[in-house]
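Appendix B, record 7
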Amino acid sequence: MRVVLDSNAIVRDYRLSGAMIQSLVALLDPDEDRLCVPKVSLDETKVHAAKAVQAFSANVDRGSREISRILGTKVDSPFDQSYVTQTIRSYNDFLNRRISELGISIIDYPELPHAELAERAFWRKAPFDAEGRGYQDTLIWQSVVDLALETNDLVVLVTNDKDFRLGDDLHPDLAADLTRLGIPRERIVLVKQASEIAEQFAELRKRDLDQLLRAEIIDGFKKGQFRRTDIHEALGMAVQDKLQYRELDPISVDLPGEFESPMIESVQDISDVEITTISALDDEGIKLLISLTFNAECEIWGVMFKPDTYIRDDDDIRILTFDYNRTHSEMTATRSLLIYADAVFAPEDASINLDINDYEVIVSGY
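Structure tokens (predicted):
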């Protein structure tokens, strides 16, 4: 089996240490299976990381200027251009080392004729979208196809990119590629997250989890207490660690567009935990992969243009500081989110390594 990581699978876990990678390392047979990443995915990840560092540095610069204005004394940002450049270089070096440590094979850029690539873009054939975006995705898809042509192994593409799919199935344009090249459709499998990979392997490896432990875990996660560990507190800390200070789309958390730069500041409560699947990552059940959903009550911070604060019609959007700066007020709102996640869970010490796959608002004032 060949498992290929799309760039979005790495960007979700910049340090390649989350539930997804832990699951793959545990499940893949080093003698029979291979974990791969296209060079284009690797390069795209490095660009994403660089942009994130630059954006964070710019935010700190703005904050330093605001502090200087408040104190009347110049406060320099600790992140000058040389620091940013060194940070980006350090991450690139780390990622290269991490890829090597994990034994991940790098797939070089495919030899795809420019005329063929251009025709695909002109006709908006998947994975190009209606706006003509999809250059990197097309190179990734060609890398997957090349693997399928080189080997008789099953090829699994780990991606949550919708442009590879139509609904839950492979996009017809991509299925047509396989037919044209004589590749059986079942030879290529798309998965979005770690739990789907575990289900694929569970069917092949025939691993079974002790039913008593399974029942104990399900009950403990639902009630919030597993042995001596407060599971709900651990989940809240994990959500906060993954989402805190990450800028969100206002629409995704059911806030008006005038609520600018919304970020989850804290997680107040975890409730209604439901486990959908539990899979063993080893024969002894030392590590388990759990797919679950739960409600997280979050405090969301943002800013709003001062005139807009007078016409807001949502009582749940509250002013923290009206004169946050010359033009904006500091705001907060409470939103209850339904979180879809995968977690690598170790029953022995109740440690949780969480990957958040998606979320949606379930209680809103807007």
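Remarks on this record: The longest strand covers residues 259-280. The mean pLDDT is 86.
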